[in-house]
Fold these 2 entries.
Entry 1:
Amino acid sequence: MDHNWDFASVLANKTLLLIGLKNTLVLGSVCLALGLFFGLFVGAARFSGKSWLYYPATAFVELFRNTPVLVQIMWFFFAFPIIAPFKIDAFTAATLGLTLNTVAFSSEIYRAGLQSIHKGQWEAGKALGMSYWQQMRRVVLPQAVRRMLPAFMNRAVELFKMTSLASVIAYGELMYQAKVVSTISFNPIEMYTSVALIFFLVLFPATILVRRFEARDTFRR
Amino acid sequence: MTEVLRIEGLHKSFAELEVLKGIDLSVNKGETVVLLGASGSGKSTLLRCVNFMEIPTSGRIHLEGKAIGSARNGRVAYAERELTQLRSRVGMVFQHFNLFPHMTALENVMEGPRTVLKCDSSECRRRGEKYLDKVGLGWKADAYPSQLSGGQQQRIAIARALAMEPEIMLFDEATSALDPELVGEVLETMKELAEEGMTMLIVTHELGFAYTVADKVLFLSEGSILEQGTPAEVLTYPRQDATKNFLRGHNMFRLPEPQID
């Protein structure tokens, strides 16, 4: 290879990259928190078996699961402002796209987790005189969440990688910053190598953590 | 004698299938009543109607002289709050134990007093330890269900129900899922409860247990009580053909009294 690797231009712009990393983490964290929060309600609606909750929730989930995230982000940035009565900046559009996508996926994790708990557990709580929410809170969720954790952590890793898609609407996350800098300093090879490395260094420890959770036996079974 | 439980004209249907076809039954304080019958005869459904795990299609259930639900236009309506409250006064033991796997033995037993009765933590602990000791498993307080044998798990499930200090205990085939050598310890625990004057309604296939412990035995067939009486009457001198066939099936292969001590 006759390319002369030179990371000096990357280091010279490290402040811009750090801003990008910060924005990546902000976008990812906000979307993760919102997505997991609203996902619980959508998942519970799908779990409930009540048709007036089930069908709208299912329609939502299928819509967001079966369209590309990149398209969702672009749509919220370019098309949504036409029908929405307010201004939408890049951060809001990216947040909407990624959050709704995370809601759709995490709701499935919640639903599957709740369904995996044997009905005898609900019955045991009920027979003691617990209300539906007491059964949920004391008996079912503590067991279900333990089973959901690996899936949620996988989802979080996926989400942080997907934040790079927000670069297409000029949100200043890591990927966008790298693109801007590389067009000025003509160093795309070193720049994108660095971006990959940064993502890896942030996400790899998280993946290790996921594996630790998956390996750990719950309740010493 | 005070009547703890009275069931009047109980019907239960699942869609087209009529499982219970008019059951009348009364259980007095301190009595042990055993329900027998082939599978599909409706005995489990009857038991599950008593604490409203299944809502009766029609008929009335009285606990301690008070009718559950309110009758309106010939139908009985049940408020969820009333049923929740009723269930806290009726203990139930399941075939598959259904212990909470994320809690230790002691936490399992404390859970009802804590979450439902809102006892303070010292009272919860006192009750938890008392009833664990009662089933002889105080020494397993910190064990998780997965670390215990089936027999131990079922005894803890009994303690969990007892900790609510219920007016009546329901046993739904409590020994059917156990390995044969573990059945004895659970039946022994149930027998002790009966002797201490607990009111119990038991679905079981353990005829020997029914004979020794029950005050009254009922034989269910196709959703109706076909025959009832003392254990000696029903189990040794059955009158109905269905009862005779049922007992014949159970006694087809029988050991002579084993010579062990």
Note: Chain B touches chain A through 31 residues (CB under 8 Å).
Entry 2:
Amino acid sequence: MEDQPQLIAYRNLLMRYVSQDSYSMSEDSELLSGALRARGVSPDDLVNMHIDVLKNVSSNLDNATLRSLYFLSKIMEGYGSEYREHQTLKNRQKQLDTELDVAAEVQKALLEGKVPACSFADIGAISEPAKKMSGDYYRIVNDGGRLAVTIADIVGKGIPAAMCMSMIKYAMDSLPENSQGAPPFILSSLNRVVERNVDPSMFITMFYGVYDPLSRVFSFASAGHEPGFYYSASKDQFEELEARGLSLGLAPGTRYKEYSREIAKGDMLFLLTDGVTEARTDNGFIERKDIVDLIRQSMHLPAAKMVKQIIYELKKMQHFNLHDDFTFIAMKF
Amino acid sequence: MNISIQREANGENLFLVAVEGEIDVFTAPELKQGLLPLTEIIGSKLTLDLNETKYMDSTALGVIVAALKSASKHQCQFVVTGLTPRIKRLFEITGLMDILKREQTNGGNADD
């Protein structure tokens, strides 16, 4: 590295410091140190450079000093290799981050949760990943006048959950259109897909419901999913949308039960993933009654604004640091 | 997280696995390593004691599901005890409780 500008700069600065007692080097040395690190000069290289400079500028270095510097250089070798390893890891990390960003974008595009225009309901949906990639999934489709809504949570975190969720998306897309009326059929079909294709430690909770505006009935089934809420306008009260069923991927051949509820004008339905209820705050877990309170405070808003407001409040309760993905859907009839 | 694995001294394949602390994405692999090989011993009886478990997240549930499936495949009787009300609710909603009960042919109780 004899001809490198850093070496010359190092020699000049060192000489000035050694020869002038009054010279304060803090700013210059910081700059030089930054430049050396930017060029990837390792600790052992630096010690060797120091020895070279000293030998060049001073002919009367005593043997003991010189030998002590060689000793230091030898000791620094290990630090040098650790430093190089660290640089390699940093680069690899950068590369992984970039790949993850791309994957997250792909996932976002795949799952872009569009909320369809709907003449008989005001619908809002929001999904926030805890990290870059999400293991939550939702889908709202207006199919020939009927409204089909899916919400799912892949139990597990990060990239494996996100990959599994993409599989769910395609499995749902490939279900025959005319099956949309039968929630138990949808869930047992998906259970077959998940059972066959997913790691044994992974499972998925899913809620699937269909609203028929002619009969004003909401039919639904649940595969182990966190129950949603039903708001009755006439009673001005909230009830759980209770439905029982095994999560997808737990057991082969699982059958699901269909539940239904009549929906009156002014009633509302709320679906969520348990990232919401499993969230920990300073005062313990967020309870379901806390969610109901949040819903009450914002239910006068249009659905799209309402879901944003609820997610904001929930994030605030966790100091804007989400531990799990979470998703919230509001349907106002 | 601390895992203790005890084998009953009477020569039968009876194991007690107790977990102290938090099971999350960082500690779950260790639990998996401890638990899964025991579920592969044909005819063994395995109890997972969560009395001293302060917190578990979804990755912990994943480990329990994998253990349940493996136990079922190897005719190992798998029992989970010491569920807090919060975790018990989670087991009930997801249907894990039904699978656990199905696995427990005699003795053992996931409800206590």
Note: The mean pLDDT of chain A is 86.
